[in-house]
Amino acid sequence: MRLDRVEARRVTLPLRFPFETSFSRTTTKQFLLVSASADGVTGHAECVADVDPFYLPETNVTALHVLRDFLVPLAFALDVSHPRELLPAFSRVRGHEMAKAALEMAVWELWARREGVPLWRVLGGRGGEIASGVSVGLQRDEAALLDKVSAEVAAGYRRVKVKIKPGRDVALVEAIRGRFPALPLMVDANSAYTLDQADHLKRLDRFSLMMIEQPLGWDDIVDHAALQRRLETPVCLDESIRSGDDARRALELGACRIVNVKVGRVGGFSGAIAVHDACRARGAPVWCGGMLESGIGRLANVHLQTLPGFTLPGDTSASARYFEEDLVDPPVVVSPAGTIAVPEGPGIGHAIVWPRVERATDLHETWRRP
Ligand code: OSB
Ligand code: MG
Questions:
Q1: Strands 129-131 and 339-341
Q2: How far apart are CA 269 and CA 283, in angstroms?
Q3: In principle, which of 19, 129, 160, 251 could form an S-S bond with 137, CB 3.0–4.6 Å?
Q4: Is 262 a catalytic residue?
């Protein structure tokens, strides 16, 4: 299969509520929607880069540049016999995993549509349902956080993750634990601490947290290994894992016991499968993170989570927690039992509502195979 056209649209969607982490406060979601076409069939994927480089180094501007000037030409030169060939074909381009993932995922989605099967089938997953968890951002105060967590528990979510940062950590976790003694609960620091705060982080050990996610540097595994030796709470890495090899190295070094995989952070589905396999081979749980995706990226995450190593609920929650009106119909919904149904239609399996996409698009580039 030869790609004959690739497009990128820049899409902006208002968020229903601001999402605050240790590194920023997001009020609107802006992303590149990448589409790849061959022989009259088109696949679509969402790039997880943001307007700023505060989570990881890429931005929507760097992703558009790297796609246009490097990745799309490499993809046009390829005669694709399977989507897993894309990531190795991109290897001369160092880093830029989010840009790589967007194009690679669009080709997987195209592949599934050509075959007329749901994405999970080409990924090697299964149908049925997945368990759903939520990520709760930093709130105004403790009362607001408790209200938010209560609402998510009442909605049926199977586990709750709360964002922390220095000054807004131990007391908040203590308050949540006081109210919900048995709740599967975890925290995510997005690199807000340093190893010299290990004694402070150790105070979280008494709250039976499932894990603490990415407490230290975004590109570190050595300090995380030192921290993990001192904590009973499992460390989970997010930002630090950008490939299957990164997952292998982190687990072998003892830098974490659990891995968060985001397809967009590891170069696409083949990278995500490599992370999944590296964890599974070592008996380490892996779960699927999120990047406030619209339904297009959200559904890609649903399909990925049907692989057998996903033994913990991830961060894939209902569209309605983020968007008044999602770009897919039906939107992603969560049952009162805290599950999401795995789509059975071709590709991502829900229809993309193109008039909504076009209304939210302020830039559209099309590249054709020379
Ligand atoms: O660290 O997991 C993270 C959102 C944006 C950037 C980083 C992270 C997150 C989330 C939200 O935690 C997960 C979601 O609901 O999509
Ligand atoms: Mg995280």
A1: antiparallel
A2: 21
A3: 19
A4: yes
* pLDDT tens column, 56-91: 999 999 999 999 999 999 999 999 999 999 999 999
Looking at residue 30, its pLDDT comes to 98
Q: Which of 78, 112, 87, 174 lies closest to 299 in space, CA to CA? A: 112
**Radius of gyration, alpha carbons of the chain:** 20
Query: What number is the average pLDDT over the span 197-211?
Result: 98
- Closest-CA residue to 267 (of 94, 33, 141, 14): 94
Other C-beta atoms closer than 10 Å to the C-beta of 209 total: 21
* pLDDT at residue number 159: 98
Measured from the Cα of 321, ligand 1's closest atom is: 15
Quote the CA–CA distance of 343 and 262 in Å, as a whole number. Answer: 19
Identify which ligand lies nearest to the alpha carbon of 289.
Answer: 1
CA distance readout (Å), 89 to 80, 94, 216: 10, 12, 32
Query: What average pLDDT does this structure show over 109-124?
Result: 98
Beta bridge partner(s), residue 44: 35
Phi–psi pair at 14, nearest 5 degrees: -70, 140
Half-sphere exposure of 198 (CA within 13 A, CB side): 13
Q: Residue 86 in contact with residue 43, Cβ under 8 Å?
A: no
Is 100 labeled as catalytic in the residue annotation? no
CA distance 159 to 152: 9
Query: Nearest CA to 293 among 252, 350, 242?
Result: 350
For 275-309, the pLDDT digits (tens) are 999 999 999 999 999 999 999 999 999 999 999 99
